[in-house]
Design brief:
This protein has 385 residues and is of the alpha+beta class. It has 3 domains: 143 residues, Beta-Lactamase, CATH 3.30.450; 93 residues; 136 residues, Heat Shock Protein 90, CATH 3.30.565.10. The chain has 12 helices and 11 strands. Strands 2-1-6-5-4-3 form a 6-stranded antiparallel beta sheet. Helix 9 runs parallel beside helix 10. The chain is elongated. The N terminus is likely disordered. The chain binds adenosine-5'-triphosphate and magnesium ion. The site of adenosine-5'-triphosphate (ATP) has 16 residues, from helix 10 and helix 12. Keywords: Coiled coil, Kinase, Transferase, Two-component regulatory system. One of its GO terms (molecular function) is kinase activity.
Protein backbone atom coordinates (compact mmCIF):
# COMPACT_ATOMS: atom_id res chain seq x y z
CA UNK A 1 0.00 0.00 0.00
CA UNK A 2 1.25 3.51 -0.55
CA UNK A 3 0.64 7.05 0.49
CA UNK A 4 -1.36 8.84 -2.18
CA UNK A 5 0.79 10.96 -4.45
CA UNK A 6 -0.18 13.60 -6.95
CA UNK A 7 0.58 11.41 -10.00
CA UNK A 8 -2.19 8.80 -10.01
CA UNK A 9 -3.78 6.72 -12.73
CA UNK A 10 -6.73 8.61 -14.20
CA UNK A 11 -9.32 5.97 -13.40
CA UNK A 12 -8.62 6.22 -9.70
CA UNK A 13 -8.71 10.01 -9.41
CA UNK A 14 -12.38 10.11 -8.55
CA UNK A 15 -12.03 7.66 -5.70
CA UNK A 16 -8.99 9.46 -4.36
CA UNK A 17 -10.81 12.78 -4.69
CA UNK A 18 -13.60 11.27 -2.65
CA UNK A 19 -11.16 10.34 0.07
CA UNK A 20 -10.53 14.01 0.81
CA UNK A 21 -14.23 14.50 1.50
CA UNK A 22 -14.39 11.18 3.26
CA UNK A 23 -11.77 12.34 5.75
CA UNK A 24 -14.03 15.27 6.61
CA UNK A 25 -17.06 13.03 7.06
CA UNK A 26 -15.14 10.55 9.16
CA UNK A 27 -13.70 13.10 11.52
CA UNK A 28 -17.23 14.35 11.90
CA UNK A 29 -18.22 10.80 12.80
CA UNK A 30 -15.30 10.48 15.19
CA UNK A 31 -16.38 13.72 16.83
CA UNK A 32 -19.84 12.14 17.06
CA UNK A 33 -21.21 15.13 15.34
CA UNK A 34 -24.22 13.72 13.54
CA UNK A 35 -24.67 16.69 11.21
CA UNK A 36 -23.77 16.02 7.62
CA UNK A 37 -23.10 19.06 5.49
CA UNK A 38 -23.50 19.14 1.71
CA UNK A 39 -19.95 18.07 0.78
CA UNK A 40 -20.05 15.12 3.18
CA UNK A 41 -23.40 13.93 1.78
CA UNK A 42 -21.94 14.25 -1.67
CA UNK A 43 -18.76 12.39 -0.70
CA UNK A 44 -20.77 9.66 1.03
CA UNK A 45 -22.68 9.09 -2.17
CA UNK A 46 -19.48 8.90 -4.21
CA UNK A 47 -17.88 6.49 -1.78
CA UNK A 48 -21.06 4.44 -1.46
CA UNK A 49 -21.36 4.03 -5.23
CA UNK A 50 -17.67 3.55 -5.94
CA UNK A 51 -16.86 0.29 -7.68
CA UNK A 52 -13.59 0.08 -5.76
CA UNK A 53 -13.66 -1.20 -2.20
CA UNK A 54 -13.04 1.65 0.22
CA UNK A 55 -12.39 1.31 3.91
CA UNK A 56 -11.44 3.95 6.45
CA UNK A 57 -9.94 3.29 9.86
CA UNK A 58 -9.07 5.28 12.92
CA UNK A 59 -5.63 5.35 14.44
CA UNK A 60 -6.31 2.11 16.35
CA UNK A 61 -7.02 0.26 13.09
CA UNK A 62 -10.75 0.10 13.78
CA UNK A 63 -12.86 0.33 10.66
CA UNK A 64 -14.97 3.45 10.93
CA UNK A 65 -16.41 3.46 7.44
CA UNK A 66 -16.75 1.02 4.55
CA UNK A 67 -18.65 1.00 1.29
CA UNK A 68 -20.78 -1.82 -0.20
CA UNK A 69 -17.98 -2.77 -2.63
CA UNK A 70 -15.71 -3.47 0.37
CA UNK A 71 -18.48 -5.45 2.06
CA UNK A 72 -18.95 -7.55 -1.10
CA UNK A 73 -15.23 -8.15 -1.32
CA UNK A 74 -15.07 -9.58 2.21
CA UNK A 75 -18.45 -11.33 2.02
CA UNK A 76 -19.98 -9.38 4.90
CA UNK A 77 -22.33 -6.44 5.35
CA UNK A 78 -21.21 -2.83 5.68
CA UNK A 79 -22.47 -2.93 9.27
CA UNK A 80 -20.29 -5.95 10.04
CA UNK A 81 -17.26 -4.19 8.63
CA UNK A 82 -17.77 -0.93 10.46
CA UNK A 83 -16.60 -1.15 14.05
CA UNK A 84 -14.46 -4.27 13.41
CA UNK A 85 -10.66 -4.29 13.66
CA UNK A 86 -8.98 -4.09 10.24
CA UNK A 87 -6.91 -7.17 11.13
CA UNK A 88 -10.09 -9.27 10.98
CA UNK A 89 -10.20 -8.73 7.22
CA UNK A 90 -6.66 -7.95 6.12
CA UNK A 91 -3.57 -9.91 7.14
CA UNK A 92 -0.28 -8.02 7.02
CA UNK A 93 2.26 -9.88 4.86
CA UNK A 94 5.06 -9.30 7.35
CA UNK A 95 5.17 -10.47 10.94
CA UNK A 96 7.25 -7.57 12.27
CA UNK A 97 4.23 -5.25 12.13
CA UNK A 98 1.53 -5.63 14.75
CA UNK A 99 -1.28 -5.17 12.22
CA UNK A 100 -2.11 -4.38 8.62
CA UNK A 101 -2.40 -0.64 9.18
CA UNK A 102 1.07 -0.51 10.77
CA UNK A 103 2.37 -2.50 7.84
CA UNK A 104 0.83 -0.12 5.32
CA UNK A 105 2.07 2.93 7.22
CA UNK A 106 5.59 1.58 7.74
CA UNK A 107 8.50 3.81 6.76
CA UNK A 108 9.67 3.65 3.20
CA UNK A 109 6.44 2.34 1.71
CA UNK A 110 5.26 5.75 0.58
CA UNK A 111 5.61 6.30 -3.11
CA UNK A 112 6.34 2.68 -4.02
CA UNK A 113 4.07 0.73 -6.33
CA UNK A 114 1.05 -0.52 -4.45
CA UNK A 115 1.63 -4.00 -5.87
CA UNK A 116 4.86 -4.11 -3.87
CA UNK A 117 2.93 -4.38 -0.69
CA UNK A 118 -0.09 -6.37 -1.61
CA UNK A 119 -1.58 -8.18 1.35
CA UNK A 120 -3.92 -11.03 2.02
CA UNK A 121 -7.63 -10.51 2.49
CA UNK A 122 -9.80 -12.80 4.59
CA UNK A 123 -13.39 -13.40 3.51
CA UNK A 124 -16.17 -14.25 5.92
CA UNK A 125 -16.12 -17.86 4.67
CA UNK A 126 -12.45 -18.18 5.69
CA UNK A 127 -11.10 -17.90 2.16
CA UNK A 128 -7.80 -16.04 1.77
CA UNK A 129 -7.37 -13.83 -1.29
CA UNK A 130 -4.74 -11.45 -2.66
CA UNK A 131 -5.38 -7.74 -2.36
CA UNK A 132 -3.51 -4.59 -3.09
CA UNK A 133 -4.36 -1.00 -2.54
CA UNK A 134 -3.41 2.53 -1.68
CA UNK A 135 -3.58 4.37 1.62
CA UNK A 136 -4.18 8.05 2.34
CA UNK A 137 -4.24 9.78 5.70
CA UNK A 138 -6.32 12.80 6.60
CA UNK A 139 -5.29 14.68 9.75
CA UNK A 140 -8.08 16.36 11.66
CA UNK A 141 -8.00 17.92 15.12
CA UNK A 142 -4.85 16.04 16.04
CA UNK A 143 -6.27 12.72 14.87
CA UNK A 144 -5.64 10.83 11.68
CA UNK A 145 -8.11 8.93 9.57
CA UNK A 146 -6.70 6.32 7.20
CA UNK A 147 -8.61 5.60 4.05
CA UNK A 148 -7.66 2.60 1.99
CA UNK A 149 -8.77 1.75 -1.56
CA UNK A 150 -8.56 -2.01 -1.99
CA UNK A 151 -8.57 -4.24 -5.02
CA UNK A 152 -9.06 -7.99 -5.13
CA UNK A 153 -6.19 -9.12 -7.33
CA UNK A 154 -6.59 -12.88 -6.85
CA UNK A 155 -7.98 -13.37 -10.37
CA UNK A 156 -5.20 -11.25 -11.88
CA UNK A 157 -2.59 -13.23 -9.95
CA UNK A 158 -4.17 -16.50 -11.05
CA UNK A 159 -3.99 -15.39 -14.70
CA UNK A 160 -0.41 -14.17 -14.21
CA UNK A 161 0.59 -17.51 -12.69
CA UNK A 162 -1.10 -19.36 -15.55
CA UNK A 163 0.66 -17.14 -18.08
CA UNK A 164 4.02 -17.65 -16.39
CA UNK A 165 3.44 -21.42 -16.34
CA UNK A 166 2.53 -21.53 -20.01
CA UNK A 167 5.56 -19.31 -20.79
CA UNK A 168 7.79 -21.77 -18.94
CA UNK A 169 6.25 -24.68 -20.80
CA UNK A 170 6.81 -22.93 -24.14
CA UNK A 171 10.42 -22.35 -23.20
CA UNK A 172 10.86 -25.99 -22.26
CA UNK A 173 9.22 -27.04 -25.50
CA UNK A 174 11.47 -24.75 -27.50
CA UNK A 175 14.54 -26.09 -25.73
CA UNK A 176 13.40 -29.70 -26.27
CA UNK A 177 12.81 -28.98 -29.98
CA UNK A 178 16.28 -27.42 -30.28
CA UNK A 179 17.80 -30.55 -28.71
CA UNK A 180 15.82 -32.88 -30.99
CA UNK A 181 16.79 -30.81 -34.03
CA UNK A 182 20.46 -30.89 -33.02
CA UNK A 183 20.36 -34.64 -32.45
CA UNK A 184 18.75 -35.20 -35.84
CA UNK A 185 21.30 -32.98 -37.55
CA UNK A 186 24.12 -34.86 -35.85
CA UNK A 187 22.60 -38.16 -36.88
CA UNK A 188 22.07 -37.17 -40.53
CA UNK A 189 25.55 -35.58 -40.75
CA UNK A 190 27.10 -38.79 -39.43
CA UNK A 191 25.09 -40.99 -41.81
CA UNK A 192 26.05 -38.78 -44.74
CA UNK A 193 29.69 -38.82 -43.83
CA UNK A 194 30.06 -42.41 -42.72
CA UNK A 195 27.70 -44.18 -45.12
CA UNK A 196 27.38 -42.10 -48.27
CA UNK A 197 30.87 -40.59 -47.92
CA UNK A 198 32.50 -44.00 -47.58
CA UNK A 199 30.50 -45.34 -50.51
CA UNK A 200 31.56 -42.48 -52.79
CA UNK A 201 35.20 -42.83 -51.70
CA UNK A 202 35.20 -46.57 -52.44
CA UNK A 203 33.57 -45.91 -55.84
CA UNK A 204 36.46 -43.58 -56.64
CA UNK A 205 38.97 -46.22 -55.66
CA UNK A 206 37.20 -48.81 -57.84
CA UNK A 207 37.24 -46.40 -60.73
CA UNK A 208 40.99 -45.87 -60.33
CA UNK A 209 41.48 -49.63 -60.28
CA UNK A 210 39.36 -49.97 -63.41
CA UNK A 211 41.44 -47.34 -65.17
CA UNK A 212 44.71 -49.04 -64.22
CA UNK A 213 43.82 -52.67 -64.84
CA UNK A 214 41.28 -52.93 -67.61
CA UNK A 215 43.16 -51.44 -70.56
CA UNK A 216 40.32 -49.04 -71.29
CA UNK A 217 39.94 -47.41 -74.70
CA UNK A 218 40.51 -43.63 -74.95
CA UNK A 219 36.75 -43.13 -75.05
CA UNK A 220 36.26 -45.28 -71.92
CA UNK A 221 39.12 -43.38 -70.21
CA UNK A 222 37.44 -40.04 -70.92
CA UNK A 223 34.27 -41.43 -69.39
CA UNK A 224 36.17 -42.72 -66.35
CA UNK A 225 37.80 -39.32 -65.80
CA UNK A 226 34.45 -37.59 -66.12
CA UNK A 227 32.92 -39.97 -63.61
CA UNK A 228 35.85 -39.41 -61.23
CA UNK A 229 35.38 -35.65 -61.47
CA UNK A 230 31.68 -36.01 -60.69
CA UNK A 231 32.43 -38.27 -57.76
CA UNK A 232 34.88 -35.71 -56.38
CA UNK A 233 32.24 -32.97 -56.69
CA UNK A 234 29.71 -35.22 -54.95
CA UNK A 235 32.15 -35.92 -52.08
CA UNK A 236 32.90 -32.18 -51.66
CA UNK A 237 29.17 -31.30 -51.67
CA UNK A 238 28.44 -34.05 -49.22
CA UNK A 239 31.16 -32.80 -46.85
CA UNK A 240 29.82 -29.27 -47.11
CA UNK A 241 26.25 -30.40 -46.43
CA UNK A 242 27.33 -32.59 -43.51
CA UNK A 243 29.43 -29.78 -42.03
CA UNK A 244 26.56 -27.32 -42.38
CA UNK A 245 24.33 -29.76 -40.57
CA UNK A 246 26.79 -30.36 -37.77
CA UNK A 247 30.53 -29.64 -37.94
CA UNK A 248 32.55 -32.70 -37.01
CA UNK A 249 34.97 -30.42 -35.14
CA UNK A 250 32.25 -29.80 -32.58
CA UNK A 251 32.24 -33.49 -31.66
CA UNK A 252 35.84 -34.32 -32.36
CA UNK A 253 38.02 -31.24 -31.76
CA UNK A 254 35.91 -28.99 -29.55
CA UNK A 255 34.29 -25.58 -29.71
CA UNK A 256 37.43 -23.61 -30.51
CA UNK A 257 38.18 -25.62 -33.65
CA UNK A 258 34.53 -25.61 -34.71
CA UNK A 259 34.54 -21.79 -34.42
CA UNK A 260 37.75 -21.58 -36.44
CA UNK A 261 36.07 -23.61 -39.19
CA UNK A 262 33.01 -21.35 -39.02
CA UNK A 263 35.19 -18.24 -39.24
CA UNK A 264 37.22 -19.60 -42.20
CA UNK A 265 34.06 -20.57 -44.06
CA UNK A 266 32.52 -17.14 -43.38
CA UNK A 267 35.60 -15.28 -44.67
CA UNK A 268 35.82 -17.48 -47.76
CA UNK A 269 32.13 -17.27 -48.63
CA UNK A 270 31.46 -13.61 -47.93
CA UNK A 271 34.86 -11.91 -48.23
CA UNK A 272 34.37 -10.14 -44.90
CA UNK A 273 37.38 -9.98 -42.57
CA UNK A 274 36.69 -11.87 -39.37
CA UNK A 275 38.90 -12.22 -36.32
CA UNK A 276 38.45 -14.90 -33.66
CA UNK A 277 40.04 -13.97 -30.35
CA UNK A 278 39.80 -16.93 -28.00
CA UNK A 279 41.85 -19.40 -26.04
CA UNK A 280 41.34 -23.06 -26.90
CA UNK A 281 41.80 -24.18 -23.28
CA UNK A 282 39.05 -21.80 -22.09
CA UNK A 283 36.57 -23.27 -24.57
CA UNK A 284 36.65 -26.91 -23.46
CA UNK A 285 32.97 -27.17 -22.69
CA UNK A 286 30.38 -29.93 -22.70
CA UNK A 287 28.17 -30.67 -25.68
CA UNK A 288 25.20 -28.59 -24.48
CA UNK A 289 27.22 -25.39 -24.01
CA UNK A 290 29.48 -25.94 -27.05
CA UNK A 291 26.51 -26.53 -29.36
CA UNK A 292 24.59 -23.54 -27.99
CA UNK A 293 27.57 -21.17 -28.34
CA UNK A 294 28.36 -22.49 -31.82
CA UNK A 295 24.76 -21.99 -33.00
CA UNK A 296 24.56 -18.51 -31.45
CA UNK A 297 27.74 -17.39 -33.22
CA UNK A 298 26.63 -19.09 -36.44
CA UNK A 299 23.37 -17.10 -36.38
CA UNK A 300 25.25 -13.87 -35.57
CA UNK A 301 27.56 -14.41 -38.56
CA UNK A 302 24.64 -15.34 -40.84
CA UNK A 303 22.94 -12.10 -39.80
CA UNK A 304 26.07 -10.07 -40.47
CA UNK A 305 26.40 -11.61 -43.93
CA UNK A 306 22.69 -11.02 -44.71
CA UNK A 307 21.94 -7.67 -43.13
CA UNK A 308 24.96 -5.72 -41.88
CA UNK A 309 26.95 -4.65 -44.99
CA UNK A 310 30.00 -4.98 -42.77
CA UNK A 311 33.66 -5.13 -43.78
CA UNK A 312 35.06 -6.36 -40.47
CA UNK A 313 33.91 -8.68 -37.71
CA UNK A 314 35.49 -9.45 -34.34
CA UNK A 315 34.52 -12.39 -32.15
CA UNK A 316 35.92 -12.30 -28.67
CA UNK A 317 35.50 -15.17 -26.21
CA UNK A 318 37.22 -15.09 -22.85
CA UNK A 319 36.69 -16.48 -19.41
CA UNK A 320 36.63 -14.64 -16.14
CA UNK A 321 36.41 -17.20 -13.36
CA UNK A 322 33.25 -19.21 -13.93
CA UNK A 323 31.81 -16.97 -16.65
CA UNK A 324 32.41 -16.96 -20.35
CA UNK A 325 32.12 -13.52 -21.93
CA UNK A 326 31.34 -13.43 -25.62
CA UNK A 327 31.33 -10.32 -27.77
CA UNK A 328 30.55 -10.26 -31.48
CA UNK A 329 31.00 -6.90 -33.19
CA UNK A 330 30.61 -5.80 -36.76
CA UNK A 331 31.16 -2.42 -38.42
CA UNK A 332 28.02 -2.54 -40.53
CA UNK A 333 24.83 -0.49 -40.67
CA UNK A 334 23.81 -1.23 -37.08
CA UNK A 335 20.65 -2.75 -35.68
CA UNK A 336 17.55 -0.79 -34.65
CA UNK A 337 14.86 -1.46 -32.03
CA UNK A 338 12.38 -2.19 -34.85
CA UNK A 339 14.79 -4.75 -36.34
CA UNK A 340 14.87 -6.56 -33.03
CA UNK A 341 11.09 -6.69 -32.79
CA UNK A 342 10.31 -8.07 -36.26
CA UNK A 343 7.54 -10.59 -35.70
CA UNK A 344 8.59 -12.84 -38.55
CA UNK A 345 12.26 -13.06 -37.52
CA UNK A 346 13.35 -16.02 -35.45
CA UNK A 347 17.15 -15.78 -35.45
CA UNK A 348 17.55 -13.35 -32.55
CA UNK A 349 14.77 -15.08 -30.61
CA UNK A 350 16.56 -18.40 -30.99
CA UNK A 351 19.81 -16.76 -29.92
CA UNK A 352 18.18 -15.36 -26.77
CA UNK A 353 16.50 -18.67 -25.97
CA UNK A 354 19.80 -20.51 -26.18
CA UNK A 355 21.47 -17.97 -23.88
CA UNK A 356 18.60 -18.12 -21.36
CA UNK A 357 18.67 -21.92 -21.60
CA UNK A 358 22.19 -21.73 -20.19
CA UNK A 359 21.04 -19.17 -17.57
CA UNK A 360 23.10 -16.45 -19.24
CA UNK A 361 22.44 -12.89 -20.32
CA UNK A 362 22.49 -11.32 -23.76
CA UNK A 363 22.54 -7.70 -24.90
CA UNK A 364 22.18 -6.71 -28.54
CA UNK A 365 22.86 -3.08 -29.32
CA UNK A 366 23.98 -0.51 -31.80
CA UNK A 367 24.64 2.04 -29.04
CA UNK A 368 28.31 2.49 -29.57
CA UNK A 369 28.05 2.33 -33.37
CA UNK A 370 29.06 1.96 -36.06
CA UNK A 371 27.74 -1.53 -36.43
CA UNK A 372 26.13 -4.02 -34.11
CA UNK A 373 27.44 -5.45 -30.89
CA UNK A 374 26.25 -8.62 -29.17
CA UNK A 375 27.40 -9.21 -25.60
CA UNK A 376 26.75 -12.52 -23.89
CA UNK A 377 27.65 -13.65 -20.38
CA UNK A 378 27.34 -17.37 -19.70
CA UNK A 379 27.92 -19.15 -16.42
CA UNK A 380 29.96 -22.14 -17.58
CA UNK A 381 31.28 -23.64 -14.33
CA UNK A 382 28.94 -26.63 -14.71
CA UNK A 383 29.73 -27.04 -18.42
CA UNK A 384 33.50 -27.21 -18.25
CA UNK A 385 35.11 -30.53 -19.22
N1 LIG B 1 24.44 -7.61 -37.48
C1 LIG B 1 23.32 -6.99 -37.88
N2 LIG B 1 23.42 -5.77 -38.49
C2 LIG B 1 22.30 -5.13 -38.90
N3 LIG B 1 21.04 -5.60 -38.76
C3 LIG B 1 20.90 -6.80 -38.18
C4 LIG B 1 22.02 -7.55 -37.71
N4 LIG B 1 21.54 -8.69 -37.15
C5 LIG B 1 20.22 -8.66 -37.28
N5 LIG B 1 19.81 -7.53 -37.88
C6 LIG B 1 18.43 -7.09 -38.14
O1 LIG B 1 17.61 -7.72 -37.18
C7 LIG B 1 16.55 -8.42 -37.82
C8 LIG B 1 16.21 -9.63 -37.03
O2 LIG B 1 17.22 -10.60 -37.10
P1 LIG B 1 16.84 -12.15 -37.01
O3 LIG B 1 18.08 -12.94 -37.06
O4 LIG B 1 15.97 -12.31 -35.81
O5 LIG B 1 15.94 -12.40 -38.27
P2 LIG B 1 16.31 -12.56 -39.80
O6 LIG B 1 17.80 -12.74 -39.94
O7 LIG B 1 15.70 -11.45 -40.58
O8 LIG B 1 15.56 -13.90 -40.17
P3 LIG B 1 15.83 -15.36 -39.61
O9 LIG B 1 14.59 -15.71 -38.83
O10 LIG B 1 16.05 -16.21 -40.81
O11 LIG B 1 17.07 -15.31 -38.74
C9 LIG B 1 17.06 -8.68 -39.22
O12 LIG B 1 16.00 -8.81 -40.13
C10 LIG B 1 17.91 -7.46 -39.50
O13 LIG B 1 17.11 -6.39 -39.97
MG1 LIG C 1 18.81 -14.18 -38.72
Amino acid sequence: MRQQRSARPRGRRLAVFALGFLGGRLTARLDQDGSADAPSRHSRRIVHNASEAIIATDERSRIVLANPAAARMFGVTVEELEGSPLARFILAPETDHPGPLEYFKADGRAGRRSTDYAGTGLRANGEHFAIEGSIADTPHDGRTVYTIILRDVSERQRVQRKLARSHDQLRQLSSALQTIREEERTHIARELHDDLGQLLASLRMDLNLLEETCGATPHALRLIHGMDGNLLTAITSLRRIATNLRPRALDEGGLYFALQGLRDDFVQRHGIACELLADEAELRLDDQASTAIFRIIQEALTNIARHAHATEVTMNLYRINSELLITIRDDGRGISEEDMEKAESLGLIGMRERVWGLKGEITISADEGPGTRIDIVLPVANHTV
